[in-house]
């Protein structure tokens, strides 16, 4: 089964058939190569440990601990044995949010998850999240015709716990920033407004997919807006409202993720990688790395190969 796009490193398969997310119970020495996805991910080490490399910084998730991975962050995960019991295979649960599967009930899920303080949630609610993860693991591995019903109930309780753990910049519940004074995205609306929000959110995910497919091409906001039948102004407002970022910045992130993977895992020249990742010129390539990583692409590669990036 192919889960990772070889060029963009974007995770292709997110939702498990039984969940509005990708929920996997791991039993063995599994390893997920460098990748990223549009939803946040939870890694729970049930038995043994998990080695997590997030933006090329290594973290060790010990038995009984959880680690939250924000959306659109490059990472790789490897399950490790318990040093005290090296002959026993590790167990873990990974839960990756699939925003496109949740837009019917959470049209602003992208903005809501971007507003979360993942470090604070880990620190303050890590124990409760680990307990939910353990119960989900036991539910889906325990057999019985009702196991996925039980696991989904736990999944939504877990999701509510995470979103209730943080408050957005605008003070809106569930980490949802206010659009304008007096307006809270995700608040109850009329039927017509709810239908429009759902339709707009689905279009946004098509635009995300378009950017991940055409990132090597010269793309402007006006061109993509026309491709999807919108004026430049309406397109920009809609994308920002549902994505919590501009289209230009989202496209830059996609290109950066491609470039990072090529810099770390190939010996291609920096110039060739710049072209393959869609950056128009050397200056824009370097500026993007300086803004994101505070170093140029060549220095980023050197640090990564030395295990420092």
Automatic annotation (TrEMBL):
<keyword id="KW-0238">DNA-binding</keyword>
<dbReference type="InterPro" id="IPR003313">
    <property type="entry name" value="AraC-bd"/>
</dbReference>
<dbReference type="Pfam" id="PF02311">
    <property type="entry name" value="AraC_binding"/>
</dbReference>
<keyword id="KW-0805">Transcription regulation</keyword>
<feature type="domain" description="HTH araC/xylS-type">
    <location>
        <begin position="205"/>
        <end position="303"/>
    </location>
</feature>
<feature type="compositionally biased region" description="Low complexity">
    <location>
        <begin position="175"/>
        <end position="190"/>
    </location>
</feature>
<dbReference type="GO" id="GO:0003700">
    <property type="term" value="F:DNA-binding transcription factor activity"/>
</dbReference>
<protein>
    <submittedName>
        <fullName>AraC family transcriptional regulator</fullName>
    </submittedName>
</protein>
<dbReference type="InterPro" id="IPR014710">
    <property type="entry name" value="RmlC-like_jellyroll"/>
</dbReference>
<dbReference type="InterPro" id="IPR037923">
    <property type="entry name" value="HTH-like"/>
</dbReference>
<feature type="region of interest" description="Disordered">
    <location>
        <begin position="169"/>
        <end position="192"/>
    </location>
</feature>
<keyword id="KW-0804">Transcription</keyword>
<dbReference type="Pfam" id="PF12833">
    <property type="entry name" value="HTH_18"/>
</dbReference>
<dbReference type="InterPro" id="IPR009057">
    <property type="entry name" value="Homeodomain-like_sf"/>
</dbReference>
<dbReference type="InterPro" id="IPR018060">
    <property type="entry name" value="HTH_AraC"/>
</dbReference>
<dbReference type="GO" id="GO:0043565">
    <property type="term" value="F:sequence-specific DNA binding"/>
</dbReference>
